[in-house]
Amino acid sequence: MSETSMNPGKVLVVDGSHGEGGGQIIRNAVTLSCILKRDIKVINIRANRPNPGLASQHLESILAMLRISGATTSLTPKKQDTSFDLNGTSIPRVSSPPGVNTNIDLKTAGSCTLCIQCILPFLMTLATPSRVTVIGGTHVMKSPSFDYLQRVFLPTFNLLGNDVKAWLRAPGYFPRGGGRVELEVNPNGGKFVPFNLTEKGSLVTIEAILNVTPKLEKHLPEFRRLISEKTPKPRIEFRILSFASVEYFVTCEKSRAGFSYLVEGRNPEPDQVFKAITTVQKEVEDFLVSSAAVDTFLADQLIIYTSLAKLSDPSSAESRLRTVTLSDHTTSAIHVAQLFSPQNKFQITKREDGAHDIVLL
Which positions are annotated as active-site residues? Predict the structure, then answer.
């Protein structure tokens, strides 16, 4: 990242209640503060949520970034704080610091993948490789699972010229957590590149993962039949765990996508799993007939990299992606990116089939 792209200036105030008002704003603001060496203050954190303030997974991600980056804060943040500040200008400017070897314990079943989403862009800017173990939840409601990280995000991210690997050392889920994800990051020195993910090409494979509790194991033939009826030649994987979920992963010639449904409750019934399969199958069908190339999870995670590519080289080409729908998380990511680099403008166009083109001009 060039010195000209780092504009310390005055304190940048980030309203944590903007839009969906969740963790996406916190994660992206902290990441960009550390990479661009900006002094920020985040206010109104999750103000419109039932339990306002920092949740444990947000707090531990912030503390990890402070430790990894060397950024400082006037007052160490704590759980349920509704504001915090982070002084990115305190990070040494002379040269890129070396990689890290550390553990991050989320202390709950908070999402390991969302924590990785926060720290990965910064780790990419370091001088040498990093190895990080994140302890928490690997399959969490409304968050991309480890399987998604491994089968969709990382293959896409690495096709953009990066080199990141992840291993599942132990699964973790609500309420205990305790899952362990090991991450190996070979940095790019902060030289992010623009990309174009607007075409998916022909379908290559569909993989289905079905996680069920021991009580539901006797229903596996019925679940398999339902999956096979509407899915063209799926590869089906079953796991017996303490929760139930359905995950579909689509590989096309030029893109990947993932869709999932985590069944609520600790004692799921067969009907809930049948509903989950039907729901996810419909999302896969909608994706395949649409012009979209990426799913909503991938879109919101890639926005920060479009911004970093333009900041790395303002004269570089546009970054483009085409997503199924424009999610609240994606619009939050765009909002934060614009706060840090208002000179770079996003253009959003809705297509006739409902897909959205997002272009960073």
Answer: 329
